[in-house]
Description:
The chain is an alpha/beta fold and about 60 residues long. It is built from one helix and four strands, in the order βαβββ.
Amino acid sequence: MKSCKIAVVGATGAVGQVFLDIAQQRNFPIDEIRLCASTRSVGKKIEYKSQEIAVELCTPELLQ
């Protein structure tokens, strides 16, 4: 399967966390991952495949 770029909208919520867990368990081929959520979660760190990734504000520009 080809690697892809992923933006997880609502990464700090229940569905976002389940998506990240499943993607990690199934070794989904992600080339680049960006985590975004609301202002109250910006800067929070989430671990994905032994990396800590900072949550970014979800904006239209981020998703382009």
